[in-house]
Amino acid sequence: MTGPTVEQAITRVHHEEWARVVAGLARRFGDLDVAEDATAEAFVAAAERWPREGVPSNPGGWLATTATRKAIDRLRRESQRDARHQAARMVYDDTPAGPTGPVEDDRLRLIFTCCHPALALEARVALTLRLLGGLTVPEIARAFLVRETTMAQRITRAKAKIKAAHIPYRVPSADDIRERLAGVLAVVYLVFNEGYLASEGDDPVRVDLTEEAIRLGRLLRSLLPDDGEVAGLLALMLLTDARRPARVSRTGELVTLDKQDRGAWDRTLIAEGNALVRERIDAVATGGDPPGRYQLQAAINVVHTDAPSARDTDWSTIVALYGRLVLLNPSPIVRLNRAVAVAEVDGPGVGLAEVDRLAEVLDGYHAFHAARADLLRRLGRGGESRAAYDRAIGLAGNPAERAYLTRRRDQLAPPAGADRAD
Hints:
The longest helix is centred in the first third of the chain and has 26 residues, at 4-29. It is built from 20 helices and no strands. The relative contact order is 0.06. It starts with a helix and ends in a 12-residue tail after the last helix. The chain has helices at residues 4-29, 32-53, 59-78, 82-88, 106-114, 121-131, 137-144, 148-164, 174-196, 207-223, 228-241, 267-285, 293-306, 315-328, 332-346, 348-356, 359-362, 366-378, 382-395, 399-410. The model is unreliable at 88-100 (pLDDT under 50). α3 packs antiparallel against α4, α6 (121-131) crosses α9 (174-196) and α14 runs antiparallel to α15. With 422 residues, it is mainly alpha-helical.
């Protein structure tokens, strides 16, 4: 196997094995920097050797073994302290492994470990996306709507704080799980979002990330079966992922919700997501905690998936649910989504007025300009719509989104005075 085929294999294995190798090394050696760096060195070694030697029959095992050796070499080089030597000798240690605690999956344990209360919530999420999700700094920066340099500094500071505070890689206790759950849920949802509509790269959808996020969501559900937000997040991901088969056209263009072939939606996932939402509605009705942000977002998706066609969508209920969500999470993106729903109920002029209130904070977010472009188009303001589409296209990193936005822009009437072909 040579040339592009090997490169494709390495890319695929990176998607599939990065988190597993990092998490295994972190558990073994107790050092996040060592785990990440050794894993990266193993992939460099693969890029050098696999074109000559061929892709091994068990790529994940090859990478884990190579990364372990790289970690041991680094620990031996960097320190003569007994603790480091003991870590380096662990590869030869055949004593039984210690207890795993309430979280047995290495990758899920790594998320809980990184979501330590000594770190700011955004730092926890960013660090875990880097270590476990394998996302690049630019991808994480896009998810947080901040500059790449800002995000790089945030991740570096988070690692430094872990070292300075002597935060160990250890199994979280039952109390730790409750304390760190909000950060864990945020991580899983951001991993899912990056997979569902990738912010960079040639693939509009990264199924490896969406599947990993759902897998982690199921593990969380088994760990905390009575937690409403865990159930809500899993339902939200299932209902969203159910629409994935209809989300990108054969020509590689994004297909918006109103234009999707609803017959292509995965009805098994929809049924599972609906069952989780109904479970939470019953729990709230019998005195349970009021719904949180993930439960409300799942309920919004239920309204969408229940509608037999786009014109049958109950937008008034969606606006009401977004109103409750804004009270819990008044982020500009939630307010943008509510404004889009308001436009369906009260008209594009009312929706545009709400969207424009977010101009300062969301100017660097492509979906803000895309929403403006659509509403301006519906209002017949073609020149302004074209300018908004141009801005959205310039900011969009996903190829399917760029293709869709470009086509919509090109469907607008030509600007007044523009040259026309005879």
